[in-house]
Amino acid sequence: MPMRFLITGATGFIGGHIAEACVNRGWQVVAITRPTSDTALLDKIGATIVKGELNDQNLVRQAMEDADVVVHCAGKVGNWGPLEDYRPLNVEALRGLLEACKGHALSRFVHMSSLAVYAARNHYGTDETEPLPCGHRDSYSQTKVEAEAVAMKYYRDYGVPVVILRPGFVYGPREKAVLPRMIEGLRQGTIRYPGGGRGALNTIFIRNLVDAVFLAVDQTQAVGQIYNLTDGEFVSKRRFVETVADGFDLRHPHLTPPFWLAKAVTWCYEGVAKMRGAKESPRFNFTALKFLGLNLDFSIEKAKRELGYRPRVNFADAISETLDWYKRNLENLSRS
What we know:
Structural class: alpha/beta
Order of helices and strands: EHEHEHEHEEHEEHEHEHHHEHH
CATH class of the domain at 4-176 and 201-236 and 296-314: Alpha Beta
Largest sheet: 7 strands, parallel
Distance between the termini: 39 Å
Number of helices: 12
CATH superfamily of the domain at 4-176 and 201-236 and 296-314: NAD(P)-binding Rossmann-like Domain
Shape: globular
CATH architecture of the domain at 4-176 and 201-236 and 296-314: 3-Layer(aba) Sandwich
Number of strands: 11
Helix content: 40-55%
Radius of gyration: 20 Å
């Protein structure tokens, strides 16, 4: 049966792929976009575009009309900045969207969270029963925790059919935040492996994530649940970074400082940056330390068991497709 999806963040990497996949299935897509956002992809696929801000309740209610499913991907990402820069979009905009859903005959409200909500430590098969920390060092992770609490409150108190998805590091064609910086870091020889680089990276290919979104919409028992999502395949930091390096004929990183030393240096760099009121993150920051230094292995057994989630694209095929796209488009990305 044709459905009508309201997607926030549809001009971004994840939301754009979900919107594209919806249209390919013959479903209608409505996207709330900022007036300054590039809507070329949404125009191309024939999505209905509602321009404005998520904190505009009248606009949100207009966009919600006749929606069957809401997929909330909009949010402020980053590894630096005060909480007050992150809360308006990551927490309060979500609250407003959920408020508009009260009493609405929705089939599903899919909230895109992140594995960043878990404590910044080594993880070995951590599942959804793990309690979340009360506070995080970085504002992105902290507001993701707060956003989950808001979403679950609206499920419990008002019956909004919320499903929370916690993907890991999402990569694939059109990802513009991590891989371009990694490629540039490889070119400049600035990438290090704190602790040796043999720990797991919590990768998930974009098409595997899109599959999980549709499973969360299809499965009735998903309502009120939270799911970790990765590709379910062990990919070490070294394997990922060195595969990217090989794809661009770049040298492999060779420096492997002890984790304790990398952590101490990061504390110093971040401390100085905060004292100076730096607007940009320092070269050594805790988000990068977590990404390249901690073992990030999370269980997806609950998603397999309850959603029937089976990642269909393996790492070798996914990274090959991704790197092919970057080889064609990286120069354009650097100019944008």
